[in-house]
Amino acid sequence: METLRGVGIERVKATVWGAFFTAILGVLIVVGSRNLDHFDAALVGYTFAVLFATFAITYRYTMWLQRSPTVL
């Protein structure tokens, strides 16, 4: 079951979940900083690192859950 020119459906699902949770975290950061009014510019690098890590961890966890020993 290959889709999108050789990319497996598992990777597509993991990418969608990673993007979803990263977007939720991004929205929460904007809301929590009152539309970035109370956001310290010195923390921009850390913010992007946390967003990237959120995507990466969610992606890998979703891929791990789809492996045959962990599928319910």
Structural class: mainly alpha
What is the overall pLDDT average?
Answer: 90
Main sheet overview: 2 strands, antiparallel
Strand line-up across the major sheet: 1-2
Oligomer: single chain
- Structurally, how many domains make up the residues? 1
Q: How would you spell out the order of helices and strands?
A: EEHH
In total, the number of strands is: 2
Low-confidence stretches: none
* Helical residue percent band: 55-70%
Computed over alpha carbons, the radius of gyration is 16 Å
- Give the count of helical stretches: 2
> Termini separation (Å)?
19 Å
- The gross shape turns out to be elongated
Please tell me about this protein's structure:
The chain has 72 residues and is mainly alpha-helical. The protein has one domain (2-70). Helix content is 64%, strand content 6%. The chain contains two helices and two strands. The chain has helices at residues 9-32, 44-65, and strands spanning 2-3, 7-8. The chain has a two-stranded antiparallel sheet with strand order 1-2. The longest helix has 24 residues, at 9-32. It is elongated and about 45 Å long. The protein starts with a strand and ends in a 7-residue tail after the last helix.
List keywords for this structure.
single chain; 72 residues; mainly alpha; two-stranded antiparallel ribbon; 2 strands; 6% strand
Topology:
Elements: E1 2-3, E2 7-8, H1 9-32, H2 44-65
Helix pairs in contact: 1-2
Structure summarized in a few sentences:
The protein is mainly α and 72 residues long. Helices cover 64% and strands 6% of the residues. It has one domain.
